[in-house]
Amino acid sequence: MTLKIVIDTHSATAPYEQLRAQISGQARSGVLPVGYKLPTVRGLAEELGLAANTVAKAYRALEGDGVIETRGRNGTFIAAAGEAAERQAASAAQAYAEQVRRLGLSREDAAAAVEEALRAAYGK
How far apart are CA 25 and CA 18, in angstroms? Predict the structure, then answer.
């Protein structure tokens, strides 16, 4: 298996975001398995015809999302994204619960706000 990235230079979406989305999608779908070693920033930049800073920005965003992990000189690898996503969701839920309690919302109103946000995000 190899990393397959296509950057559309005519897209309104920034190249770093295209790169971030494609790596994230391939990691979450299993096309890129946990532990897969990604190319170096410079190597991928050369391959895609992008600036190294563009690839570095995408890698930083992916690391922040828990999709990849950097192991120093050993390289950058696909992380166990599902676990990281669950941890981030639990943390966000905890922060939300604390915020609505401070605001004085009832459990029902807080839950209704979450349902509305999810409907908007998922289109249902």
Answer: 10
